[in-house]
Amino acid sequence: MTAAIQTARELISFRIREQDFCIDIVSVREIRGWTPATPLPRAPAHVMGVINLRGAVMPVIDLAARLGLGSTPPNDRNVIVVVWDGARQVGLMVDAVSETLTIDAGDLHPAGEVAAGFATDFVEGFLTLGERTVTVLRLAEVLPSLDEAA
């Protein structure tokens, strides 16, 4: 018969500290320029604060800090990727949005083969695009719990 049908997946890639990461584009609601966040008392270091997005208060996460890459001092060149995880809207501060990628399931190298436990909570897998390696993140794991983000 015919070979198994591969399902295409669309991802949006972005840069943090000269590294490429991506998430499923289905979760992305919008991409917006940097807006200063109102700090929250006693918030974890990766929770920058909250912003008002058309009447809705939304937490903003420093994705570099959340991934253990150190905190990012925000500037006008940063971008907020607004994502929706089914229960809430959250902003992810990144350095820049790069491109939209369409991949087949077979293009993804599982994290377990490479990460050996240290990154498997946040990392779904890796893509190799020429000489670049792009880390595919598990958005549900990257986002702080509702208690942590509140």
Structural write-up:
- This protein is mainly β and 150 residues long.
- The chain has a single domain, classed as CheA-289, Domain 4 (OB fold (Dihydrolipoamide Acetyltransferase, E2P), Beta Barrel), CATH 2.40.50.
- The chain has four helices and eleven strands.
- The strands form two sheets. The protein has a six-stranded mixed sheet with strand order 8-1-2-11-10-9.
- The longest helix has 5 residues.
- It is globular.
- 25% of the residues are buried.
Give a short summary of the structure:
Helices cover 11% and strands 47% of the residues. With 150 residues, it is mainly beta. The chain has one domain: CheA-289, Domain 4 (OB fold (Dihydrolipoamide Acetyltransferase, E2P), Beta Barrel).
List the helices and strands and how they pair.
Layout: E1 8-16, E2 19-24, E3 28-33, E4 47-53, E5 56-62, H1 63-66, E6 79-84, E7 89-94, E8 96-104, E9 109-110, H2 111-115, E10 123-129, E11 132-137, H3 139-142, H4 146-149
Parallel strand pairs: 2-11, 5-7
Antiparallel strand pairs: 1-2, 1-8, 3-6, 4-5, 6-7, 9-10, 10-11
Major β-sheet annotation: 6 strands, mixed
Percentage beta strand: over 45%
Helical/strand content category: mainly beta
Catalogue the unreliable spans. none
SS summary, helix count: 4
How many domains?
A: 1
Helix content: 10-25%
Using DSSP, what is the number of strands? 11
- Silhouette: globular
Radius of gyration over all CA atoms, rounded = 16 Å
CATH class descriptor name: Mainly Beta
Order of helices and strands: EEEEEHEEEEHEEHH
Q: At CATH's second level, what is the architecture?
A: Beta Barrel
* Cα separation of the termini: 53 Å
